[in-house]
Specification:
heterodimer; A: 1 helix
Chain lengths: 51, 264
């Protein structure tokens, strides 16, 4: 491997991890927002309030 | 009275003097269900987040573009602009965990527990990233992907300690006990951070001394500073977003507990 391939691998990995964490945050947020919406509207999960 | 607020920013459950949850959400929750589930509330990133990602990309391009090859490492030196800022940001966030854990034990307010947990999650991600980036840098420089050098070993221990902190949180169901135990671990684990930082001075082995504006040559200072600032801002943003989600998770947890207490 050339030195530039290590550099490219390092920067690519950085962005994969950052974008992966953003995706993880988004999924987690959507999941809990829907759960809270359902609980706020009916007092129990899955009983309504879904968008 | 010890006040414990859970739930979203718009309302929550306040523990009364007897510890019984008193619901205050109805008068403090302007956001209705429809508002909560559409638009920016469910987006992973706000415009500020996109801006910070753009700032990081710009900082990386500038640093890679302007930095000359290092005398010993050549262009491999450019890995410094991701490896070092990721770990610096992680160290700052571990300090946030430490302070928030102390604050939790002192004030017993849920928000400190949630701040600590949010900062720990982001810091663990950045520490893991920093370790792998160091490995990618180490292979062409030292000839090995990994060696039991004191800096590498203490950093790996740091990663495992805080991964354990997150595991402890996920395995403990009672919120109060989870917060108390996590705070204790968050404080004790931080003792390793100065050891990691000083390990390169205490045991002069393979890893070079800390890269900082005072230890690198002038052509590398601007790139290092720009990337450190960009990483730090992005890390702080991630913690804020994670904290907002954690508050909603705590609200859901409190509502489910209430429902089960009422026998629904």
């Amino acid at each position: 491997m050339t030195e530039w391939s290590y550099i490219l691998a390092a920067y690519a990995l950085t962005w994969i991890v950052l974008v992966g964490y953003v995706v993880h945050l988004g999924r987690r947020r959507r999941k809990v927002v829907r759960l809270v919406a359902a609980l706020r509207s009916d007092g129990q999960p899955g009983a309504g309030g879904e968008p | 009275m010890t006040e414990t607020v859970t739930g979203s920013g718009s309302g929550g459950v306040v523990a009364g003097s007897e510890g019984a949850p008193v619901d205050t959400r109805e008068e403090r929750a302007p956001a209705d269900v429809a508002q909560l589930t559409r638009g920016k509330a469910i987006r992973a990133l706000t415009p500020v987040g996109w801006l910070l990602l753009g700032l990081l990309l710009a900082a990386q391009l500038v640093a890679v573009w302007i930095s000359p090859p290092d005398r010993d490492m050549g262009h491999l030196q450019k890995i410094m602009y991701v490896h070092v800022p990721a770990l610096w940001t992680a160290f700052v966030l571990f300090f946030v965990v430490f302070v928030a854990s102390l604050m939790y034990l002192w004030r017993r307010a849920d928000r400190y527990d949630l701040v600590a947990a949010s900062a720990a999650e982001v810091a663990v991600v950045l520490t893991g990233l920093g370790l792998v980036l160091g490995s990618i840098w180490g292979k062409p420089t030292w000839g090995v992907w990994w060696t039991w050098d004191p800096r590498l070993t203490t950093t790996a221990i740091l990663f495992l300690l805080y991964a354990g902190y997150l595991a402890l949180r996920s395995f403990t169901e009672d919120p109060e006990r989870r917060a108390r135990w996590s705070a204790a671990v968050g404080i004790l684990a931080f003792l390793n951070v100065p050891i990691v930082y000083l390990s390169v001075r205490w045991w002069r082995t393979l890893h070079q001394v800390q890269s900082s504006p005072s230890t690198v040559d002038d052509p590398y200072v601007l790139g290092l500073r720009l990337n450190a600032i960009a990483f730090l801002l992005l890390g702080a943003y991630f913690v804020v977003r994670r904290y907002q989600t954690a508050r909603l998770e705590r609200e859901a947890e409190a509502r489910v507990q209430e429902a089960s207490l009422r026998g629904i």
